[in-house]
Amino acid sequence: MKRRAEVVVIGAGAIGLGVAYELARRGVTDVVVVDRQHLNFGATARNGGGVRAQWTTKANIELARESIRRFDVLSQELGHNLFWRQGGYLFVARTDTQVEALERAVRFQNANGVGTRLIDPDEARSIVPALDVDGCGIKAGSYNPRDATLFPWPLVWGYHEQCTRMGVEVQPFTTVTDIVTHPETREVKAVVTDKGRIDCSWVVNATGSWTNDIGRMVGIELPIRPERHEILVTEPLKPFLRCMLVDMTTGLYASQSSRGEIVGGVAEQRTAITMDWASTLPFLTHMARTLTFLVPRMRHVPVLRQWAGSYDMTPDAKPIVEAHEEVPGYVTVAGFSGHGIMISPVSCEVVADLVMGRTPRFDVATMSSRRFTPGGPDVEEETLVIG
Ligand SMILES: Cc1cc2nc3c(=O)[nH]c(=O)nc-3n(C[C@H](O)[C@H](O)[C@H](O)COP(=O)(O)OP(=O)(O)OC[C@H]3O[C@@H](n4cnc5c(N)ncnc54)[C@H](O)[C@@H]3O)c2cc1C
Q1: How far is the CA of 340 from the centre of ligand 1 (A)?
Q2: How close is the Cα of 304 to the center of ligand 1, in Å?
């Protein structure tokens, strides 16, 4: 392992490797990425692969809209098949309040360059013929055909391969135990790992749910908390679900993978703030009941596997992307609140620009943690988090 690098990135998920890739693409290749686990261990390996621009905040809409443009070309650029498929996202509303919320969201998305449309129950049925539109009392839906799904594992493999090819060093099974800063200026000097010390000018904290474990090493604690979420996959079926289906009442989401499996989760009755990733019977039962209510043909389909992971939640469900002035050289990119894959390409570009002293194409002031302090920028809370 290198003993000196310009940048050390902590965390080799979609965010950490994405940052390293964007730096390398811009010519900064003196970069080491460390992760205490194997590749595809954290939330990046455990998610539903959903990518949508149907959000209710300008920041999430813009990040997702532009990231979708990047995903359009990323399989080719990385040389790995990301199983990128634009089958759209269909949100279904079953109460008048939900219909009104969708109407507002569609107007806002249209005003921000996203072509979502409000649809009636018949159109919902035509998009998902297996949906029990009448039995479930579906009153309306919103549909954006450019929303998509992908398989996150090859995203990691692709980033890893391209980073390595460009000279970035990626070190799995390497745990960061401390960060050394200058005693007076607090400037970053080095990262200490269980495999030795790496002197550096920049540290990028891309550890998702573990952000504060690293942050505490430099005295920075952020409002990010790990929220447990479960998910499952069924046996493969013939293709019948082209879009990602989302139920506003239960927070259920489900899509069909290219191999035919149905992958999905559902909002749990009680959200647990914990890093306990055990699978539970209540989730399995609740998910099975909710899914078969909406899509009765899913009855009797065996579940192959269920697992859990964490959303790294912020109070407004938007990420924190910040070069902290009080610790020069220390950057946080975390708090993706259950939608980190879909906004990762552009978020990682922003970090690369910050490290290189360039002005990012997104307003970083609104992404900084200062929005949670008195006198900071206004908090625009996201209301369309699901799962
Ligand atoms: C069930 C579930 C469903 C989801 N569905 C979606 C979805 O459909 N679409 C979407 O966009 N997003 C979804 N997400 C969210 C998405 O998975 C995350 O936002 C994203 O993967 C975050 O990536 P990351 O690289 O920041 O974190 P992670 O992938 O968690 O990576 C963090 C890494 O930091 C490493 N690390 C921690 N501490 C240390 C240390 N001391 N030293 C070295 N390394 C360390 C960890 O080992 C880990 O590999 C979902 C998440 C879950 C759990």
Answers
A1: 7
A2: 22
The verdict on domain 4-46+153-223+315-372 having CATH code 3.50.50.60 is yes
Summarised one tens digit per residue, pLDDT across range 251-267 is: 999 999 999 999 999 99
- Which two structure tokens, joined as six digits, stand for 220? 């920075």
Phi then psi dihedrals of residue 166, to 5 deg: -90, 0
Domain 87-146+225-313 is found in CATH 3.30.9.10 = yes
Q: Is any ligand 1 atom within 6 A of the Cβ of residue 309?
A: yes
1, 149, 213, 339: residue to mutate for ligand 1 pocket, most atoms within 8 A of CB: 339
Does the predicted model carry a pTM greater than 0.90? yes
Residue 197 has pLDDT above 90, yes or no: yes
Query: Tens digits of per-residue pLDDT, 34-79?
Result: 999 999 999 999 999 999 999 999 999 999 999 999 999 999 999 9
Ligand 1 centroid – CA 43 distance (Å)? 3
Write the residue with the smallest CA distance to atom 15 of ligand 1: 338
CA dist., res. 39 & res. 14, Å (int): 10
Token look-up 């920041």 returns 59
Asked if residue 47 has its Cβ within 6 Å of ligand 1, the reply is yes
